[in-house]
Structure formats: C-alpha cells, structure tokens
TrEMBL record:
Belongs to the AB hydrolase superfamily. The keyword Hydrolase applies. Gene3D superfamilies: alpha/beta hydrolase (3.40.50.1820). GO terms for molecular function: hydrolase activity. Residues 309-535 form the AB hydrolase-1 domain. PANTHER family: ESTERASE-RELATED. Keywords: Hydrolase. Pfam families: Abhydrolase_6. The lineage of its organism: Eukaryota, Fungi, Dikarya, Ascomycota, Pezizomycotina. SUPFAM superfamilies: alpha/beta-Hydrolases. This is Alpha/Beta hydrolase protein.
Length: 542
C-alpha cells in the first residue's frame, strides 16, 4: 500500500492562569520546531488564530507525508517523552488533536504554500474549515463518495471564482490509523484565501445555493460546522521566538535535557540552539538583541578555530548602541565535529550553511553580514552567491585568494593538531600569530580567552574545516558583486602585510570597489582585540 498523505490538526485553548507568553514561548520555541526537525514526516507547520469569536482560539496544522508515520516511535516518542515544561504547559491547555487523511485538492495556478512565503506575506492569510458528518443509517461509502464528488466537481470550482481564493483541500476523519469507533465519519475541507478576499460575497453565496448541494446535504449529511482563522505564525525547524521570551521572568529559562537548546527570557532574551544542514551537520547558533521578528538582523561569521563567542565584545557594544538590531551568530563549519562521512569544507559550502541557517530561522534577508578571516572570505562568497539574502556586508582580515604557501602551512598545522595535545600546542602559536604586539603585551585576559577558545576546537573539524582555505580564488567573480560592502583589517595583521593585500584588491570588488577601514593596534581579530576601535570603523556603514 502506498503512502497516505494527511494532516495533523490540533486546536488549543489555554486555561485560565496560563499566560499567552508562556503558551507561545513553549509552542514556538519547543513544540513546533521539534516537529519540523522531522521533515520526512512534517514538511510544514502553521499556527492560526480564530476570527469567528468561537473557541478554541488557536489552531495548528501540519501536513503529514504519510499518516502511518504518526504511529511510529519517531513521532510517538515526542509525546511520551515530554519535557517538564511541556508537560506543565500542555496540562493547562484544552487540546483537541486529530488526524485527517488527504482526499483531494484544487488550487490556483500561482498558488504558493505559506511556508514558502515570507512572514509578511504569510501572516494574515485566511483559513476556513468546514466539516460535515454523515447521517446515521446511510451507506458510508456511498455518502462519502457523493459528498466528495460534489466538492470536487461543483463546490470547489465555484469557490475558485471568489476573489482571493487560493486553495481548497478535502480530507476524511477519522484517519485510517485511528479506531473507526472514535467518532462519526466526517468530511473536512480546508479553504485558503488571501488576506483581502470575497468571502460572503455573491460568488460565495452562489456556491452555497445549488440543487446538487441541496440534494447532497438532504440525503447524506447530519451536521455541518464552520470555523474561520487567520495565519499568525509559520514554524521552521529552529526556535526564533524572542518576543514572548522578552516578557517572561528569569525563572522561565529553559534548557533541553541534552543541553543543545537554551532559551533565556527577560529584557535581553536569547536563544541558543542549532540548525541541521543537508549533509547532517548540526550548526549551533545564538539569536538575541531586538526581540521583534521584523527587526533588521545582523549576522556574524567567525574565523576558523574560534566559536561564536568571539563576537562577545562587539555584540555587547551593539546591544548598547544599536538596540534596533536583532543579532545572529553561528559556529562556522569546522568548529565542531564534521558530518559522517566527513566532507571537506569549501567556501561554497560555508556560504550554503549561512543560507541554511537563515531559512531555518525564516530570515528573509539580512540587514548585514559581518565576517572575519575565513568568515570574511565566506562573507564575500555569500554576497556573491546569495545577493538577495543580504543588504550589505563587512568582510574583515582575509584574502580573496589562497596561495600554495598558505595551503602548505594549513597542512602543517593539521599535522600539529592531530599530534599529542595538538590543539593545546597549536593554540598559543596561533594566537601569537594572530594578535597585535600591543594585545600580547597589554591584553592578557583577551589573549588567555582566545587561546582557550582555540584549544577547544574539534581536531577533526579543524582538519576538514581548514580545507576551505586551500586553493580558493574569488578574484574572477568578485567584480560582479552587487551587494554594498566594506572591508576592515587590523593594522598589525601579518605585520601589516594583510593591510597591503586588502588595499590591493579592494578596488576590484563590485563595479566601483569598496572602502577599506584600518583598525589601529589590532591584528587578525580586531573586533576581539580592539572592539571600540572596530566599532568606530564600521558604525557608519552598519
């Protein structure tokens, strides 16, 4: 037997005493994303709010690729192994959870599913749910066929003439995976409309008044119900709900049992979680700053051997001086372990990773992307490959092409890293090469912080991650860059050699070149060594 597509259809009404912020924080940051991390089962997840004054107020529906998946441990374990927070919250919600089997669908030629739209395009779309139950004593198969045929052959074609109609789908419930004695057979239809539409207009009224409809309802239906909703949230596989977190008390902080997801509530909300790439690599990220989902977002791409915490000094400045910005950091491929089987990193793959993170977080377009060293090369590559996803970029302390000598140097460092206490030996040498002499002499705590960070890098991650810097060359494509850019570099990086190199190629980026800012008394990581000086260099551009 082939797959039976269907729908998981859940209505919810928070009980008295459960705040909506707690409800939305749990649902948007835990419950929904957990299911979207199973794309072979749930390709999407949508939340709706009732517009008809009836209860339950909230609806969530998830398309299901095959309803039989809903009986497998992959799904049932989610319900059986609830976190304490989920158990507490769901215990204070009135829940009606049903499975629908897909029967038929019709849609406009230009229909685009909500999950493929931006949030601005999707939010406010209208959903109408109509359910009809069968009369007692009728032949079930005959009645179902008569009702479905009427929908497919007459009713939906007439609905399609309503201005703003997008799609209609026909389902059956109970699903074949449920016991047929759990309730009467119902035919459920979901009708989707644009925000501005002709519902209750002449076309709609005409669809409700035909001889065939009268015959079908007279002979086969016992009851009809109708609910109307508007879409207000589209799930992705990564939690991003800062707004609800921003009004919750510190005691509402949440961490999953495996420690891979943490939400920090309060006036400075933050989410630490991860995104899974197509090749199975888990990329940690941190989302913080302005909690508004429409706030302009600045993302940061770290250097090889560092993690997302390298941006701490700059992020602290941005939070204080640019509270309008939402801030996104992630660990560049190579910081942690590698996929299985191992995949050598390339600049193309690193740029793809950023696009994967943005898609998971439903960030349509970055205000800016800032990257340093390998992250700087990644930033330029991302601007070249995905110009529609970023408004401007700041690329720091990098070169647009590697050399044979650089490739050989990376191979030598890999050999050191794979030796006894290799990262421990590589870390102080690396930081000594990176940092300005002023930093090495006067910024001991920063040197210690960075040395410890480098020493913690995953050895195999370094081996495969550093290969992105072997034999790359962006010179042939950088002239076609259409994104506004800025370059920055520490004045002591490579004892001044990188300043000269970046001066040499800045004019070749885009049609008219880009500006280069030099940060004094800084080396390879100016945002770590001299964060105030770096901020002064980029403030006007950002």
């Amino acid at each position: 037997m082939g797959a039976t597509p269907g729908l998981l259809y859940v209505t919810m009404e928070p009980r008295q005493g459960l705040s909506l912020d707690q409800f939305h924080d749990w649902y948007n940051n835990e419950h929904g994303p957990t299911r979207l991390r199973l794309p072979h089962i749930f390709p999407n997840g949508l939340r709706y709010r009732a517009t008809d004054g009836q209860r339950p107020t909230f609806l969530a529906d998830y398309d299901v690729t095959d309803v039989e998946y809903l009986e497998t441990p992959t799904y049932t374990n989610l319900r059986e192994n609830r976190t304490p927070r989920e158990a507490d919250t769901i215990g204070r919600v009135v829940v009606d959870r049903r499975f629908f089997d897909f029967v038929a669908a019709q849609q406009r030629p230009d229909f685009v599913p909500a999950e493929q739209l931006s949030d601005a395009e999707a939010e406010g779309l209208v959903l109408v749910n109509v359910e009809v139950s069968l009369k007692d004593g009728v032949d079930t198969a005959e009645a179902e066929k008569a009702i479905v045929d009427w929908y497919v052959e007459e009713h939906i074609p007439m609905l399609s003439k309503i201005p703003g109609w997008l799609r209609s789908r026909v389902f059956r419930t109970p699903s074949r995976i449920e016991d047929a004695t759990t309730g009467p057979v119902k035919i459920a239809t979901l009708h989707e409309y644009a925000k501005t539409n002709g519902l209750d207009g002449p076309e709609h009224k005409a669809s409700m008044d035909t001889p065939r409809r009268t015959e079908v309802f007279t002979n086969y239906t016992a009851a009809k119900s109708r609910r109307t909703y508007e879409l207000f949230y589209v799930f992705g596989p990564a939690p991003r709900e800062l707004a609800a977190l921003s009004t919750r008390p510190a005691a509402a902080a949440f961490t999953t049992a495996d420690g891979r997801i943490t939400t920090t509530p309060g006036l400075t909300p933050a989410i630490d979680a991860y995104v899974t790439t197509p090749d199975g690599l888990e990329i940690p990220y941190r989302l913080e700053g302005n909690p508004s989902p429409t706030a302009p977002t600045v993302a940061f791409s770290n250097s090889l051997l560092t993690d997302l915490s390298m941006w701490d000094p700059l992020v602290a400045i941005l939070k204080a001086r640019r509270p309008d910005l939402r801030l996104l950091r992630y660990d560049t491929r190579g910081r942690g372990d590698v996929p299985s089987p191992p995949v050598p990193a390339t600049l193309d793959l690193l740029a793809d990773d950023i696009a994967t993170v943005l898609k998971a977080l439903r960030i349509e377009r970055l205000h800016a992307l800032v990257g340093v060293s390998m992250g700087g090369a990644t930033t330029l590559k991302f601007a070249l490959k995905y110009p529609a996803l970023v408004g401007k970029f700041v690329a720091c302390d990098f070169n647009v092409a590697s050399s044979e000598a650089n490739t050989a140097a990376w191979k030598d460092r890999v050999q050191v890293a794979e030796g006894v206490d290799g990262m421990g030996k590589l870390a102080p040498v690396t930081v000594g090469r990176w940092f300005h002499e002023v930093s090495m002499r006067e910024r001991g705590s920063v040197v210690e912080w960075m040395t410890a960070m480098v020493a913690r890098n995953h050895v195999r991650g370094f081996r495969y991650g550093c290969q992105a810097l072997w034999g790359y060359d962006l010179r042939g494509e950088m002239g076609g860059c259409e994104v506004e850019g800025l370059l920055a570099v520490g004045d002591g990086d490579g004892k001044g050699a990188l300043v000269r190199a970046m001066e040499g190629f800045k004019g070749g980026i885009g049609a008219s070149g880009v500006e280069l800012k030099v940060v004094k008394n800084a080396g390879h990581l100016p945002m770590c060594e001299a964060p105030e000086g770096f901020w002064e260099a980029v403030e006007g551009f950002l």
